[in-house]
UniProtKB/TrEMBL annotation:
Pfam (any one): PIRT
Protein localization: Membrane
Segments traversing the membrane: 37-58, 64-90
Identification of the protein by name: Phosphoinositide-interacting protein-like
Keyword Transmembrane among record annotations: yes
Membrane disposition: Multi-pass membrane protein
Keyword vocabulary terms for this entry: Membrane, Transmembrane, Transmembrane helix
Amino acid sequence: MSSSNEMDSMSPVRRALQPEPVVVEESSRWVYYHKPIIIMVIGGLLFTAGTVIAFLYFSRVGRVPYALGPVCLSIGLMFLVTGLVWVPVIRQKVRKGLIRGMYSRRLPI
């Protein structure tokens, strides 16, 4: 079934039941690592904002709500650590070849 004549002469049911070839693209690392990088950036920004807000509260420069600084600090740190832990997990899955099927593309017949 390698030639196009054989594919044309097959019945539609047989064509539908035949598995489609899967092509694995060698793409950039951005495909695998974009989510943890975005999470780490958001976490870093929240952590920095929490630090600034806590500094403003404790230096009594402005009227800042009491819990806003610590809340931003803790949420930012949570996002940052989650992203940092996520990177080695993805690296291990890429080495074992477990994620390659998720980013594959099917060819039309």
